[in-house]
Write a structure and sequence with these properties.
single chain, 2 domains, two-stranded parallel ribbon, about 5% strand, RNaseH-like_sf
């Protein structure tokens, strides 16, 4: 049992099994439950439709009990309405839900596994992100040490060019001289803007230490640290558009 819904689902199944074993000759039976969800799921089943795996045993037991002509009523009642042993049943359900016990014979609905899937995905994503930071992502790690839950550009109407250029700044991989040199398009990786042959032209160099661009970059940053501005990608007051505009006016390739 992994949630209150599954506890209610399982309780109905055990009730139906009890009816079949101990009251198979009864002409009718009334089952009371405070689970609107379970009753709603039963009502939504259509003849000939695919029965969800976690409902198959319930449907089978309903068919077995009513197959002899017996009438079965499943009625909703409010919680804590004086039904005998209701408090005990709730206590047992909470206790069962707190125990990490796996029964291979119990079918768990996919909805019960979603929190687990989400947590596993989050853990893997974080582990992968941290591994990549240790193996060559120091630039991004300087302002983003955990993966973002959603892309910064989600639900924003931006030109693809702006999204691409911003991502290049965030990742530290742009169409700079170092990249062009690695692609064997140019003969030198050194910065073409400041002309310093001791400086390799990278995103970090262009934003932090290029003497030819330093004053304009600082103005575009609004006096804020580069790491703070890059971490603000997607925020309404982010200075990244100003940085990109300045680089564009200077014909700096990104």
């Amino acid at each position: 049992i992994s949630s209150s819904y599954f506890a209610e689902n399982y309780a109905l199944l055990k009730t139906l099994e009890h009816l079949i074993v101990h009251h198979s000759n009864s002409p009718s039976a009334l089952v009371l439950t405070d689970s609107r969800s379970v009753i709603s799921e039963i009502n939504n089943l259509q003849p000939g439709s695919l029965v969800p795996i976690h409902m198959q045993l319930i449907v089978t037991n309903i068919q077995v009990f009513t197959g002899t002509g017996a009438t079965l009523y499943i009625q909703w009642v409010p919680s804590h309405s004086g039904v005998l042993a209701n408090e005990l049943a709730d206590s047992c359900a909470r206790e069962a839900g707190s125990r990490a016990i796996v029964d291979p014979n119990v079918a768990i609905p996919p909805s019960e596994l979603r929190p687990t899937w989400y947590q596993v995905a989050q853990d893997i994503n974080l582990s992968t992100h941290q591994t990549r930071l240790r193996t060559g992502g120091s630039w991004t790690a300087s302002f983003q040490n955990i993966p973002t839950p959603t892309p910064w550009y989600r639900h924003k109407e931006l030109p693809n060019k702006i999204i691409t250029q911003t991502n290049r700044l965030l990742l530290g991989h742009a169409n700079d001289r170092l990249f062009q040199y690695r692609m064997r398009s140019v003969n030198s990786p050194h910065c073409r803007y400041c002309g310093d042959e001791s400086e390799v032209e990278t995103v970090e160099h262009l934003l932090v230490s290029c003497r030819a661009l330093r004053i304009g970059i600082n103005q575009a940053l609004g006096g804020l640290p580069v790491s703070q501005v890059l971490a603000s990608a997607g925020h309404p007051d982010s200075k990244i558009p100003e940085v990109l505009a300045f680089l564009g006016n200077c014909n700096v390739q990104i």
